[in-house]
Write a structure and sequence with these properties.
The complex is a heterodimer of chains A (about 550) and B (about 375). By secondary structure, chain A is mainly α. Chain A is built from 25 helices and four strands. Chain A has a two-stranded antiparallel sheet with strand order 1-2. In chain A, strands 3-4 form a two-stranded antiparallel ribbon. With about 375 residues, chain B is of the alpha+beta class. Chain B has two domains: about 230 residues, P-loop containing nucleotide triphosphate hydrolases (Rossmann fold), CATH 3.40.50; about 120 residues, OB fold (Dihydrolipoamide Acetyltransferase, E2P) (Beta Barrel). Classes of the chains: A mainly alpha (about 550), B alpha+beta (about 375).
């Protein structure tokens, strides 16, 4: 207590810092905590006014409401299990097996992370749907594949979310000291035993983390189930339909809470429990990649799995690309540019609005993220940890919950924001804030405090130190946060679908509309324009990062 | 116990020649050190002996058996790693039992052997702990116990002491040497610490950039280094090098000369330098092979005392040459007082002088 008082006193002496902390807290409370709390409150007001537990009673007793919860959990667990298995094999192949063309496989495998969320679902329909090339053309409807429902979603979400698990597992597998595996071999174990007794147990924390991550992503997924779920209702879509279809806000809010609880729990377990159980040790010796030279059959196994995955990604994305140039998918496959003409003609408004809104939100989110990162990692003040946790909260909160929250929170005076561009921008800013915070904290963590202290010691002011020393060092983190926010804003759907209005249109909403009208070719063209923008942004990021990164500047200075 | 023979061994990673045409042998029960800076190929050689890497070319024999394609499991090799490579998810008992479980020995046999080796290494009270709960020195013992428990025919060490503090390192150095000679296990020991190699090994293989530069007893590599690299790498402080000497001489004696400096060369120089270049050579003298005089004398190198480094038992005098600013380090005789800035005359021991050709870096004398 006395310590905190002392902290408080010190902050009093720095009015600018104090003002910043208060301002950040106001923003976080208003745009992150308040909407979520509103969802909770509304779910406790069955008739819109008086408090009661009727909504939850119904949610647990009526089969109509119980099914989505059960389905979401079942789908989430299945996607997580299959996705992690696939991702583990993939990550093992990349980090341990001497396959040629690794960086290529890696790039392709991470593509679903940055692509619009429902492109894979769209591809699934083009391939396996009622007019799908495989089901309809290739097998003439004799192949009985039901793409709408659990199995379709399992395949689509596995492809969409295994890359996240892959990145986590790759990091874990890379950080295991190769000497541990070599020791096992030299101590008389076979490679098989080495894997099961050493590699796998050591990567177990990573496996659990990846599982929880994919589980949450699948639970929170909105775009794919909206297109593909058929009669297999999941929570996110059920909540959306409750609110926008049946106008039963308390029930929508209740379903959203059902969605929030498991994802928050998964997040908490992963962040506060699992992270302490990591075996990964940073050793002095550079853990140079020492690739094992596996048996030819083992190598063949990994090669086949990797090719299958890469092949599936190519097939899905290739199909959508092809589809974007066809007249009417499944019926008339004449090549045409009509779809793109439509996108740049009638769809131009969508494109323009999305670009404007994302471009406004991106820098705000990035700057705010870095600012929070700087405050929580470099300054001492009460509620510091809580500020970090709050700013990271939207990582764990499904978009559907955020969207419903904003809809409920900003629908009345004095904060009447519904229908404005501002509310969409706010959704973008605060939804993707965690990446800026996390990147910033990670970058600042790597920069030893003594580097900043040296600058102050050498006579630079605290302000100058921030701009001349700290900022350049976190620049790469800042730009990658910008990129992430921009891409995610461009491709967002689950939260914004609740707050869009006639005045401001988003490209993802247009794609959904096209899919609903069975204009699949149009949807495909829209998707590829979006993918094009994402790829451009990616090159832009690389260029800017190179321009500003201090390593690059050192390199040029030396040349 | 088998002897090890490495014949024309090469290991390439893509285009990188990690080890290039290396041959050496280790006698039965011998303790050999592979010495060199990081990236010189010594660890790659060791991992190939362990069977974790396969040679790109060449042969490796254990006794009469060609083991190029024998997997590590069947090699009867125990290995101790730099970071100990203990398993954080197992306790000490399980760590030591790991190779025995791989062999599927019966439970009581495993328990007996683990306890036996733990007692020998004085870690029997730690068996329930986890690696993170014991000290670095104890971890080192556990790693050693784990390598020894399966009673290997060959022991391989990969810089096992480099993570320990200086005091503990000295202690373990003696202990490993004692243990090795007691058990008589053929051992190969990788290190970048020349003191470790000198004190522990019966022969030292000096590696540089993937090649085996010199292989011989500690005295061999110390007194008769094959080239400047070995001369500079072995010895602490390292050998002093002075550049730009010319060999001159009459019928009686040869001298190395640079400007006003003239140093007498030993008798055998006449034969050994017969076909060697004579100009622009590098003179090498170890710090303990220089006598310091306070009065001018023939065959000495004048200089000013630059700084003194007392080590307790020894005193290192740094002398700066006035014209070239080169610094020469000398182990001074005890009991003599020096002052910084004092003029001194350095007399190298005639029969301990080395000459190198700076072009090839080969030893001429």
């Amino acid at each position: 207590m006395q310590y905190q008082l002392k902290q408080l006193k010190r902050i009093w002496n720095e009015p600018i810092l104090f003002a910043m902390i208060v301002a950040v807290w106001l923003l976080l409370a208003l745009f992150i905590l308040y909407p979520i709390i509103m969802v909770g409150i509304k779910s406790l007001q069955p008739d819109g006014e008086n408090f009661g537990l009727k909504v939850y009673k119904m949610l647990f007793t009526k089969k109509y409401f119980r099914a989505p919860l059960f389905n979401s959990l079942k789908l989430g667990a299945s996607v997580a299990s299959v996705g992690v298995l696939v991702a583990y094999i993939f990550a093992y192949a990349i980090t341990r097996v001497n396959l040629p063309g690794k960086s290529f496989y890696r790039t392709i495998a991470t593509f679903p992370i940055v692509s619009p969320p429902f492109v894979i679902a769209l591809a699934a329909i083009l391939l396996f749907g009622r007019n799908g090339v495989i089901t309809h053309k290739l097998f003439h409807d004799r192949l009985n594949i039901e793409i709408y429902g659990f199995w379709g979603l399992l395949i689509v979400e596995t492809l969409a979310y295994f890359p996240t698990a892959f990145l986590t597992l790759e990091g874990i597998l890379q950080s295991i000291d190769p000497a541990l595996e070599e020791a096992s071999l030299s101590l008389g174990s076979s490679k098989w035993r080495t894997f099961w007794r050493v590699t796998f147990p050591l990567s177990m924390p990573g496996v659990l983390a990846a599982w929880l991550l994919v589980f949450s992503q699948s639970m929170a997924d909105f775009g794919n189930p909206l297109i593909l779920s058929g009669n297999f209702h999941v929570l996110s879509v059920a909540a959306y339909l409750e609110i926008t279809g049946s106008y039963r806000i308390p029930y929508g809010a209740g379903l959203a809470i059902m969605l929030l609880v498991p994802t928050l729990a998964a997040f908490a377990v992963q962040r506060y429990w699992l992270s302490k159980r990591s075996y990964v040790t940073i050793t002095g010796k550079p853990s140079a990649m020492r690739l094992l030279e596996p048996h030819i059959a083992v190598k063949a196994f990994f090669t086949i799995i990797v090719w299958l995955l890469i092949g599936a990604i190519f097939l899905f994305y290739g199909t959508v690309l092809y589809g974007s140039f066809t007249k009417l998918w499944g019926v008339n496959h004449t090549l045409t540019l009509d779809n793109y003409r439509y996108v740049f003609d009638i769809g131009f408004e969508y494109l323009k609005d999305t670009l404007i809104l994302a471009s406004i939100a991106t820098p705000i989110s990035g700057v705010l993220g870095i600012l929070i990162a700087y405050l929580v990692s470099r300054k001492e003040f009460p509620s510091r940890r809580f500020m970090e946790a709050t700013s990271l909260l939207t990582f764990a909160v499904p978009g559907t919950v955020v969207g419903i929250g904003y809809l409920l929170a900003f629908n009345q005076q004095p904060l009447m924001l519904t229908g404005t561009a501002l509310i969409i921008i706010l959704v973008f800013v605060f939804r993707y804030l965690p990446v800026g915070v996390q990147n910033g904290v990670a970058a600042l963590y790597q920069i030893d405090k003594s580097i900043e202290e040296a600058s102050i010691d050498l006579g630079a002011s605290s302000n100058k130190t921030f701009w001349k020393i700290t900022m350049p060092l976190v620049t790469p983190a800042f730009f990658s946060a910008l990129f992430y926010t921009f891409v995610k804003s461009m491709t967002a759907i689950s939260a914004v679908i609740f707050v869009v209005s006639g005045r401001w249109q988003l490209i993802t909403i247009a794609i959904l509309g096209s899919v609903e009208n069975s204009d699949l070719a149009q949807a495909a063209a829209f998707s590829y324009v979006l993918i094009g923008i994402v790829i451009l942004a990616m090159f832009g990021l690389r260029w800017i990062t190179n321009l500003f990164s201090y390593q690059e500047r050192v390199r040029r200075a030396m040349a | 116990m088998p002897e090890i023979r490495v014949v024309n061994f090469c290991k390439y990673f893509g285009k990188v020649k990690a080890v290039d045409n290396v041959s050496f042998d280790v006698k039965d029960g011998e303790f050999v050190a592979l010495l060199g800076p990081s990236g010189c190929g010594k660890t790659t050689t060791l991992l190939t002996l362990a069977g974790i890497y396969k040679p790109t070319a060449g042969e490796i024999y254990f006794g009469d058996e060609l083991v190029n394609d024998v997997p590590p499991k069947y090699r009867s090799v125990g290995m101790v790693f730099q970071n100990y490579a203990l398993y954080p998810h197992m306790n000490i008992f399980e760590n030591i039992a790991f190779p025995l479980r791989a062999k599927k020995l019966p439970r009581d046999e495993i328990e007996k052997r683990v306890k036996e080796v733990a007692r020998k290494l004085m870690i029997d009270q730690l068996l329930d702990r986890r690696p993170s709960q014991i000290s670095g020195g104890q971890q080192q013992r556990v790693a050693l116990a784990r390598a020894l428990v399966k009673e290997p025919a060959i022991l391989l060490f990969d810089e096992p002491l480099s993570n320990l503090d200086a005091k503990l390192r000295m202690l373990m150095r003696a202990e490993i040497k004692h243990l090795q000679s007691e058990l008589g296990i053929t051992s190969v020991y990788v290190t970048h610490d020349q003191a470790e190699a000198m004190t522990m090994a019966s022969r030292i293989a000096v590696f540089s950039m993937g090649k085996l530069v010199q292989y011989g007893t500690p005295d061999d590599v110390y007194d008769r280094p094959k080239n400047m690299f070995v001369a500079a790498f072995i010895g602490n402080p390292p050998m002093n090098f002075l550049e730009g000497f010319t060999v001159v001489g009459d019928n009686q004696k040869l001298h190395a000369r640079r400007g006003n400096i003239r140093v007498e060369l030993p008798k055998e120089a006449r034969n050994r330098l017969e076909n060697a270049p004579r100009e622009n050579l590098v003179l090498g003298i170890r710090p303990e092979h220089i006598k310091i005089h306070f009065k001018e004398k023939e065959n000495t190198i004048p200089g000013l005392v630059y700084v003194l480094e007392p080590l307790g038992r020894d005193l290192i005098v740094n002398v700066k040459l006035e014209d070239t600013d080169e610094i020469v380090k000398i182990f001074a005789e005890p009991g003599v007082d020096f002052e910084e800035g004092q003029k001194v005359y350095m007399e190298p021991w005639v029969d301990k002088i080395h000459l190198f050709d700076p072009q090839t870096e080969e030893t001429l004398l």
